[in-house]
Amino acid sequence: MHISKSFIPILKNNPSEAKIKSHQLMLRVGMIKQSSAGIYSWLPLGFKVMKKIEQIVREEQNKIGAQEILMPTIQSSEIWKESGRYDDYGEEMLRINDRQNREMLYGPTNEELVTDIFRSSIKSYKSLPQLLYHIQWKFRDEVRPRFGIMRCREFYMKDAYSFDVSDEEAVFSYNKFFLSYLKTFKRLELTAIPMAADTGPIGGNLSHEFIILADTGESKIFTDKRIFDLNSDGSIIEKNSLENLRKKFEQYYSVTDEKFKKEEFEKEVSVENRLITKGIEVGHIFYFGDKYSKPLNASVDLPEGKKDFVKMGSYGIGVSRLVGAIIEAKYDDKEEIMKWPFAIAPFELAILPMINKNDNSTLEKANKIFEFFNVNGIDAIIDDMDENLSSKIKKFNLIGVPFQIIIGKKSDGDLLEFKEIGKDPQNLTLDQILKILIKQKEKN
Ligand code: P5A
Question: Fewest CB atoms within 10 A around its CB: which of 48, 184, 231, 363?
């Protein structure tokens, strides 16, 4: 990709309407464009990052045996009336009438729809567990959409649903998602802490929010600092080890605002381990038994001949919110450098030639280098604009391309000036650079 032909509308300065760094950066480097309040178009740079995040989320869902489906964004009000949530959901639900005056809605979540799909096909305990997920747009008419795509009205969510024969099996499914979430956020190089949480309009009494620390987050959290030292390496998908994994995290007091009780916090956490701070909710998981299966009559035959309602849970990740959350966690606003994890960076390599109007040898060299990386599967971009090198470097620091090759005046011979973002340059050959990049790719 040549930047002169790309659709990357970069602004000179931070837009004044944006209050937090992720919103500022996303507008500044042209990742998104607002189309109306809380509704955004995703431009090439932002879309690419979101799609890469989506793919990591997908891979980790598949690893625990979840099967991908795609449900529509528009749903019929009937199933919501069956569950009793049509009225309860209130003004956050966008209601639409079609030409036959049927009541439709833009889905804010899919518990009802997926239960309807399940009940039409699965009749026996022998087909359980079923773990189904999709990655689809949602709409919630939030009272106060703000911070760009962090709290918006139309957003992209991975939502999964589990169906089991008993409470015990359902908790096993819950724990599979618990593990899968820890692994997903780790691959995105985020420290996301599972915290006991309120269940709100989704329901149930077992729930965890996955929260990353950020001053600009909207969730207030109360936690024992030691939870940050835990990790989930080596956990296998087996009942006991998953239960132990969850217990390992649950041994430390860690709750959101709604669950906070001062006396409990002070009793369970010593003064030096107390942390009261703010965070961004990037995922939320729920166990709610037969809250939907009972009213929607989703039951299966049991081994002993009886029937029972399936036990369900649901599991959400804010895929579009993650783009902003990762910026909040990784953007250095003093140095104006965005450090995307390599696996989700908008490009893997930036080739930055010094352009000389009377001599196009540096551009030719840059094009050859670009071709070399292109055939070797590296996603590179050339800055072929007539600008000085330092502004090109600044621009790519902002965009957050993790590696740069700088082709200046003195650049001849086999050695190239190669730089990892935010670090000092080195002189390396093409093959040495390719090795470094391939190693990065293999890490993921
Ligand atoms: C779980 C999956 C649910 O909706 N039903 C299906 C359950 N949970 S949730 O917590 O309400 O949402 C899941 C995640 O979606 C993100 N999210 C948002 N992102 C951007 N803007 C919003 N307005 C918004 N609302 C929710 C969050 O990451 C949340 O954890």
Answer: 231
